[in-house]
Recover the amino acids of this structure.
């Protein structure tokens, strides 16, 4: 366990080494978030509420949406695992008493925490000063949001690791990175919340693991879920995380087993 | 003595997918893949005892790296069995990993972006090395291999020689019982090679760490490894002491005699005349039981000798003779 903490810590600290990029990144992020909020403001026009969702809620949703996806990068996980398996660099990792996908995830979590602290939080605060942002619906919802955020990070990286492992068989991680982005945009609710999805698409999207990355954390913050629903959906999310972790474990065994048998 | 490594009739055959030209060819290899078999290791057996230092030698493609990979558990033998510290390496990889150290000359295990010291620290956390033990080892090894000047430099900024020294130190930090090295001196200059060799010899002697190393540099073997395993075309062709190889081959010593006056052609029975420059005559002494005195006796008292030079065969020559004889005896 100590090893994975060390990887996360090291990921965090290496980001710190590139801190002169922070301003450029911060600026880029601000432009992006301002644009997203501006689009929603334009869509709402003068209307206070559309489909039962107020503009204020929508702006808050857009800001919270970046809490995970603005900080975490899937490219390093998908590309890193795929690349190491294909080139045989993974051999070096098979010599160490660590689980390689977990190592990649742990280091990326470290980097994500760095970006969250120095990029996402400042951006959200800055934009919130301009457009206003709703507080959590209640103390309970606020606390649940934190738990959901951690779960979101876990699901995000487990899906990325799964894609990276699939890349071993498909011999390409490029197309998988594209697919991952597309799925995030659509099925995580990053671009458009499920409230505006036509049924049954919205109902289906709510059941898929991507929903826990953006949609559920934000919906919880806004109080769209009752306390009971909050707990129940969290349990289902945990179930997804466990299933994904099992998938990663299984595919990793297959992939590394193949490397070990064939040589690389 | 305990055998720490046992390799019993191990073979490894790689399957390389055959490629056919063109789109149809690509389709064909997708639907009905055909494989070319590459036999990298064929029926190799040997045992290595605790504390030994063994050189694993052979021409390019002889199967040295493949054998190292099987012993370290990252490759599964096609047939036969490998046992390292009592376990089958690929079945108990995590466990074995904690008890061995591995250095690949061609593949870095350090973290590219991090300072060397940070890589070591991560290594400490991965292997749960007790703090005192870690500090102790690091101080000692860093001193022996003079890592101090670049400990806080990022790995990507190091020269090859500096990096290799760091790789070797990292592989030893967790007190492994066996150290595997695949071409640890590749690409190093004479000074760095020498430092690495002396270091490995010392680690082997003082800590009793078993060492197995592959190399193309015979000097490595001469300094570090009393025992030699030679492979060629996937097969084991020699296993024993370097001295035994020498005497088995009866490798010739070279004798140069310089006379004050030209004695004319001077064939001898104890030595073969290989070159005659008049005053300077070159001989080859082929038999081990012939001494210098025997040769000089045969030359006789009447001739005045100004200078004598006798050269022992060097290891390169021994090995070259060995492979040459094999190749003429067994046409490949
Ligand atoms: N992953 C692989 N797939 C197919 N063939 C391989 C693979 N790895 C090695 N080989 C083949 O197996 C044989 C032995 O390779 P190996 O790397 O063990 O040789 P080596 O003795 O280490 O050579 P060198 O001195 O060049 O490092 C070679 O013919 C090589 O082409
Ligand atoms: Mg090799």
């Amino acid at each position: 366990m100590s090893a994975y903490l060390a990887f996360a810590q090291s990921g965090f600290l290496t980001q710190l080494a590139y801190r002169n990029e922070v301003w450029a990144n911060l600026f880029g992020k601000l432009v992006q978030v301002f644009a997203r909020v501006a689009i929603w403001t334009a869509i709402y026009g003068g209307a206070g509420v559309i489909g039962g969702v107020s503009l204020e809620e929508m702006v808050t949703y857009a800001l919270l949406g970046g809490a995970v996806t603005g900080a975490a990068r899937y490219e390093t996980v998908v590309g890193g695992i795929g690349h190491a398996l294909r080139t045989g660099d993974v051999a070096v990792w098979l010599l160490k008493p660590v689980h390689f996908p977990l190592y990649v995830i742990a280091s990326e979590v470290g980097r994500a925490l760095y970006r969250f602290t120095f990029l996402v939080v400042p951006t959200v605060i800055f934009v919130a000063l301009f457009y206003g942002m709703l507080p959590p619906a209640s103390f309970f919802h606020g606390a649940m949001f934190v738990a959901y955020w951690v779960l979101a990070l876990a699901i995000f990286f487990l899906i990325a690791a799964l894609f990276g492992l699939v890349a071993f068989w498909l011999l390409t991680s490029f197309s998988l990175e594209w697919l991952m982005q597309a799925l995030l945009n659509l099925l995580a609710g990053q671009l458009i919340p499920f409230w505006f999805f036509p049924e049954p698409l919205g109902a289906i999207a709510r059941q898929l693991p991507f929903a826990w990355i953006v949609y559920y954390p934000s919906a919880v913050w806004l109080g769209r879920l009752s306390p009971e629903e909050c707990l129940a959906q969290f349990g289902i999310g945990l179930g997804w995380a466990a299933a994904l972790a099992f998938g990663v474990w299984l595919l990793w065994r297959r992939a590394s087993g193949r490397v070990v048998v064939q040589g690389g | 003595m305990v055998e720490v490594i046992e390799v019993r009739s191990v073979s490894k055959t790689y399957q390389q997918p055959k490629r056919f030209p063109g789109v149809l060819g690509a389709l064909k290899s997708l639907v009905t893949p055909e494989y070319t078999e590459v036999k990298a290791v064929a029926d190799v057996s040997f045992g290595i005892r605790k504390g030994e230092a063994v050189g694993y030698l052979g021409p390019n493609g002889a199967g040295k790296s493949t054998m190292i990979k099987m012993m370290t558990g990252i490759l599964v033998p096609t047939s036969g069995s490998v046992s390292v510290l009592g376990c089958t390496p690929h079945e108990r990889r995590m466990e074995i990993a904690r008890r061995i150290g591995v250095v690949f000359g061609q593949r870095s295990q350090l973290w590219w972006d991090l300072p060397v010291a940070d890589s070591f620290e991560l290594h400490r956390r991965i292997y749960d090395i007790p703090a005192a033990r870690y500090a102790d080892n690091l101080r000692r090894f860093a001193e022996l291999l003079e890592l101090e000047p670049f400990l806080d430099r990022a790995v990507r900024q190091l020269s090859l020689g500096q990096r290799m020294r760091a790789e070797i130190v990292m592989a030893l930090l967790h007190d492994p019982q066996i150290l595997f090295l695949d071409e640890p001196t590749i690409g190093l200059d004479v000074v760095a090679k020498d430092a690495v060799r002396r270091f490995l010899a010392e680690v082997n002697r003082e800590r009793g760490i078993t060492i197995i190393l592959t190399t193309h540099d015979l000097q490595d073997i001469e300094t570090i490894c009393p025992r030699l395993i030679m492979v060629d075309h996937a097969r084991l062709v020699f296993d024993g002491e370097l001295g035994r190889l020498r005497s088995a081959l009866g490798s010739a010593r070279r004798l140069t005699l310089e006379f004050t006056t030209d004695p004319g052609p001077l064939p001898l029975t104890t030595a073969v005349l290989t070159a005659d420059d008049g005053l300077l005559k070159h001989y080859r002494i082929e038999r081990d039981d012939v001494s210098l005195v025997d040769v000089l006796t045969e030359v006789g008292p009447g001739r005045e000798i100004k200078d004598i030079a006798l050269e022992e065969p060097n290891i390169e020559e021994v090995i070259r003779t060995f492979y040459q004889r094999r190749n003429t005896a067994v046409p490949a």
Notes: Residues 26 and 122 of chain A are 8 Å apart (CA to CA).
